[in-house]
Amino acid sequence: MLNYLIMSDSISLINHKIEELVKKENFQDSLITTYDLDEKDLNDLLEDVDTISFLTPKKVIIGRNFKVLEKDEEEKIVRLIKYLENPQDTVLLILTCSKLDERRKITKDLLKQVKPIKLEESSINIIKDKFKDYKIDNKTINLLDNYYHDDLERLIRECDKLKLAFINDKNVVYSKAFDLLLKPNNNQDNLSFDLVRAISLKDKKQAITIYNDLLSYNIESYAIMGLLESQYRLLYQVKILSKNNLNNYDIGKILDVHPFRVKKTLELIRYYSLKEIRKIIKDLAKIDFNIKSGALDNSLVLELLLLNIKE
User: Fold this and answer.
1) Which of 139, 94, 136, 91 is nearest to 114 (CA)?
2) What is 3-118's CATH topology?
3) Distance (Å, whole) CA 201 – CA 65
4) Is the Cβ–Cβ distance between 287 and 264 less than 8 Å?
5) What is this structure's pTM?
6) pLDDT tens profile 33-66
7) Is residue 33 a contact partner of residue 63, using CB atoms and an 8 Å limit?
8) Is the per-residue pLDDT at 129 higher than 80?
9) Residue 250: what pLDDT?
10) What are phi and psi of 114, to 5 degrees?
11) Which one is the CATH code of 123-180: 3.40.47, 3.30.200, 1.10.8, 3.40.30?
């Protein structure tokens, strides 16, 4: 099958899939022509499909923003379907769209003649697909997800970077991956969340590592305390609201935070009672006050934090 219809709202995912298909069908050295069907007529693409290429034996024709046209223009789709019923094996035809009305008969007829590909936009699915031929642990998958869940284009680029770095043994090592990945602008929030997680899991070694990572951003100790206070306050609010059977989006809307932060915070609520969270928030406020008033040395902050991690 050399005729594909890719359905997705993500340009990055579409581009990635097009590259895969060109390679899969062995059209890497072919002439590639792209038509934006928001601006070009579908007939222009069809004429190109029917035209023999004199420059290369094979060619790739890409029709972006494809849509089933209005009733009075259906003859163009009919012409396309006729081609698809007897396509040229020297042409790789790839159409892309966000979605189609699959209830219409003409759409159903079209879908019988192409291989439809609906791309999931879940960052986790993208990561697993990119590393399907690699060994990668859940810790590294979660790191990629935490960093780039809201920037799929960056996620794809960083996955490609790691694949190249570990191409020899195809075994992605977390520590090396962490050093190689471009840290996102919101990484301070991610690290403060990870520090809360390390404290909740009583993982002193990881807590020290994360604390030092935060310091590497030239963040003062009192600012780290502020980040932690913010995370624990969010944890407290989410724990209360989660008892009302609200979903991530509803909670995020009430608290004015991204649903992804709500999702990650929900992973921690089972480690704390409301009483324990209130105590931690009060303790952090006291430490914060003592730092700002000069009664406490910044260097003692980590030690005080680790006192909350009991074996």
Assistant:
1) 94
2) Rossmann fold (3.40.50)
3) 48
4) no
5) 0.51
6) 999 988 888 899 999 998 877 777 889 999 999 9
7) no
8) yes
9) 87
10) -125, 165
11) 1.10.8
